[in-house]
Design brief:
With 151 residues, the protein is mostly helical. It contains seven helices and no strands. The longest helix has 24 residues. The radius of gyration is 19 Å and the shape is globular.
């Protein structure tokens, strides 16, 4: 898929296995994986990092094959999800860092442009999340409020 705010065409992603069931070479069972996921989610680890840890440490190629549902869906069902989606918070954290940099380096024009791109991504994602009912209808991005939200 092409990158949104650059002239690059992007790279193809990894190919997931077509199998919907647990691979035969996976040694961990469902109860062990559930306990690992709940422990990490209680510690505040985002779902993407949980999936990476399962892949790298425990040899689980895809948690969906074992759980039967997506990892994020499982975490929400267990009541361990945060108020905001992790991708949304990551964009806000990036915008806060860039805004802090721009306060110190006022002549950094290129970074100011990229900051505006990140803010537009936040607003587009917020529009979708409002439509889906994840965010309140009157939610607006504000740099000062975002800084408080990240802390």
């Amino acid at each position: 898929m092409a990158r949104l705010h650059s002239g690059k065409k992007g790279k193809s992603g990894r190919k997931m296995s077509k199998s919907k069931t647990k691979q035969t070479w996976v040694e961990t069972d469902k109860q062990e994986i559930v306990s690992i996921i709940t422990k990490m989610a209680k510690e505040g680890v985002p779902p993407a990092k949980i999936g990476i840890t399962l892949r790298d440490k425990y040899g689980v190629p895809d948690a969906r094959q074992i759980l039967g549902v997506r990892l994020v869906t499982f975490i929400k069902k267990e009541g361990l999800a945060g108020q905001y989606p992790s991708d949304f918070l990551d964009l806000i954290k990036r915008a806060v860092k860039m805004n802090k940099h721009l306060k110190n380096a006022k002549k950094d024009v290129h970074n100011k442009t990229k900051y505006l791109h990140v803010v537009s991504k936040i607003n587009r994602l917020a529009k979708y999340l409002k439509k889906e009912g994840v965010l309140p209808k009157d939610w607006k991005y504000d740099a000062e409020q975002a800084e408080l939200l990240v802390k």
